[in-house]
Structure prediction request, 674 residues.
Amino acid sequence: MVAERPVASVRLIGVLPHLDRPFEYAVTPATAAAEAGMRVRVRFSGKDTEGIVLGRHAEPTTDRALAPLARLVSDDVVVPPAMMRVCEEIAERCAGTVGDVLRLALPPRHARAEKADRAAAEKAAEKAAEEADQAQDEQAEDPADTPAADTPPSAPRRPGDRYPGLAALLSRAGSPEGPVPRAHLILDAADPWTIVAADAIADLGPDRGALVIAPDGRDVARLARVLTARGIDHEILAGAEGPEKRYRTFRRILRGATRVVLGNRSAAFAPVQDLALIICVDEADDLLEEPRAPYPHTRTVLQCRSAEERSALLFLSASLSVPLRALADAGYLAALEPVPAPITQVRPRIVAMDEYLREREGPSGRSRMPQEALRVLRRGLAHGPVLVQVPRSGYIPAISCTFCGTRARCPTCSAPLSLRGRGGPLHCAVCGKREDGYRCPECDRPEVRAVVIGSTRTAEELHRAFPHAELVLAGGAHGPLEDAAVPKHGIVVATPGAEPDPAGGYAAALLLDADAMLARAAFDADVEAVRRWRNAIALVRSAEQDGEVLVVGTSTLPAIRELVAHRSRVFIDRVLEDRRDLDLPPFARVAEVMGERDACRRFVDALDLPGGTDVFGPVDLERPEDAGRARAVLRIAPERARELAAVLRAAVAARSARKDRGSLRVRLDPPDVF
Prediction:
């Protein structure tokens, strides 16, 4: 052991829940450089295990002999103390382990990438020193030649300038004193989020850090193009880049080579230096839900970072989500409103297919694609590309019996049967089984009808209506479509979230099957439908530029009326009122316990739950692939959610220590619980 601070406290990564605590190890001369935040390897339970040093101490807290640190992996401080506290906070909130959170926060070390980045950092430091010496010598030789700074010309009005509260938030970003500024900004359709985010980053200044989290790689690439055009240095941290490039980027961020970082869910833990501003784009997108334990939502991670690092937090989106509205009502978020402007300047003309339009058109007005929809597309094609949004991909992804309406399901796995083309047999979407002689299990009739029309069938119909227009598909089996690949006067048929963003926007958009989107089997189907529609509308030109949108659905439904109204809060207020009456989130916090039937029941029965906890289940899961599994839902008032998380965390650790049989998963606030 070394003489000075010979004891290292280490947090292990990837250990069982009951071992999620600091362990002490002896510091040897070979590992004397180990300090808080560095990666080490230790022997634990006979295995070589990775850990993070929490600190060094003079005396151990136990009388037992300490095992030595096996190896110092790197002298990089990959987990600063503030980030460690963030990881501990997330583990407490989500009833998980700190080790699992650290696994989410840290990319795997890549030795070649680390070596290359060290060499690049040394060269950059030498070059910077030479340039500084040269500039100092030139100034000493002739200080009078230093040109006076010209008065910059007045900058043109930017989209971000339409939101006065944004400037106030940025002025307080990174301030060491006073309340931390946090806000949500619902953008008008004419204001691209990429431009507003770039405006905010530019106003921060070069010495302060910014982190932008967007749902997917296409969104990140769009913002990167805008920042590159403005000459703003930035890095993209994404898992899709590969382990070597990702770790090299991680090290560049860690040593402060760049202070603007873009990424998706995996970049929420990026160690940005002097982090002053965090921007989260479209936080309600399901891509920001972490599928790995302890399942923290990206919103939760960013809230913890904002609190720990005193970073301003800004949520940008085209529609207001229920969690953000709840945070605003609680006083956590401020709502940034735009300067009033004529409605024709800030959004396209939006029309819902109401009774007047249907009656005027006659029988075709009741069809899935009425003549008014074709007229909107025809007018749009004269000025640019048009967008057709369809809820589902495929040809006919859902089928039911013509007579009794029973959904057609696979007799083997109970998954929905679909039709892949005109006149072909039915196929199972899961096991791939072909059903040539399908008959309804309820009425024994062979006739079926389409429940939902997919994007492929929609494109087929549009091609017949517009044979001379170029037509492309995006989403589903067709994959994403690059923004630059959108035809100038063509039709884009896309599923929600797959819409490309052409330069100059779409001349028109058609939102088909609105009722089917709202009929999705989820308690938040209406809110999610509005979000998807708003995102599509944000890609359409303003009414001043002849942009228009037609929604084909029941025009009296609150969600569709929300689209026609401008910046209305009536719909979200009604949703919140309904959820308050039903004790649904955000007016209650829920936990889900799912696993093998016996394990789930034993776990729930043994819980010492806080007072006021409602227990639903356990109940057996219905899907054939979930045979033998059960699920229980626990509900509690929001102010006691920490107590429930602590109970569940302790119960999981105790179960792990007992080595109970059966798989089990515990999630806090799962988005698909109802």
Summary: The domain at 589-668 is CATH 3.30.70 (Alpha-Beta Plaits). Residues 323 and 586 are 7 Å apart (CA to CA).
